[in-house]
Amino acid sequence: MKLLTIEPLENERQDEDILRSCKILRTDAKGRAEKEERLWFQFPTVEKYPDSDDCDSYLLAMFMEGMKERRKIVVKGSVSGELLSNLVELQAVWDKWDPKRYGLVDIEVDHIRENGVRAPGAVCAFSGGVDGSFTLWRHSQNKCSYRSQKINFCSLVHGFDIPLADTGAFEVALKRAANTLENIGLTILPIRTNYREITKKWTHKFSAALTAALSNFKYLSGTCLIGSGKSYDELVIPYGSSPITDHLLSSGEFDVLHDGASHNRVEKVAQIAEWQKGVSNLRVCFQASQNGENCGKCEKCVRTKLNFLACNQPVPDCFPESVSIEDQLQGAAIKKFLKKAAKKNDYVHTEWQQILDYADRHKVKASWTVAVRELLEKKRWIDLFKRK
Hints:
This protein is an alpha/beta fold. It contains 13 helices and eleven strands.
């Protein structure tokens, strides 16, 4: 039987940081070593953090690798009993969603931990985007009624959307996020990881990876808030983050809440428009050349500008001044959009359609609405032609 073995290493102090890591060993059916790697998380020294043999973070990070490679997972440390129970169900979900890619695997653990007492308060994943800003704003302002969480602090992960090698871009993004949070009396803790350097298929695993990183702070905050990417009426399956699955990433000490699926992206923008500091510091662009800033020209930047215009709000100054939005819709952005449509990324089309629908419902009429309507009509003709 092929194995994926997780062996925790001793926690280390590196200057003012803590480094938690494990060895990942793959062996073939005859027990011969195939590949050995090291997974690590590095974060500022905090009052309390997981023991060296606590493998919750490592298992969260690697269980889908085991499923993909059909390997039994052996953990040479401790894992929360609640997490192990949840992963039984989470594996079943992925086995139904994508059985050609993922299979059910056994997980063997040296020690199963009983549930501890969860620390009060929440940590909120925050990179400065629309989803995180919406979740942060409405919980910090107690806008969720009985569901509102007390946020203790936020966290930004280096090594996810910003590569580890690009320290300059991460510092810009971190400074920008800290400036935003200061406005509402919160702080941000950075955490670095090499997760993306040793795994693949990010779109299926990013919520598990995010929980793996943030669970290193579980003794500071027992709840993790993850902002939704899709609303309940537009869920994408299979996808790495969903109200169907995110709660199954919870452990005995760390409860994961998927937040914000009650609103689509335009509706979220309408809510955060009242938070001036948050809007002026939005970071939605993943273009590698932008050094942590928004390029203002890519499909996502243009789409976010349209989100604001649909809400009858001005384009925020977090986007650099450029040509008119109408010209952008006829230029590189339209080509990018059609390229995505050709790859059947229907969720992109859905978000553009939502912009137009929201503008129509709120009687927003402008030259850009005409351009978007023409754009969507072109997409429909392309779909029709492809079906024939």
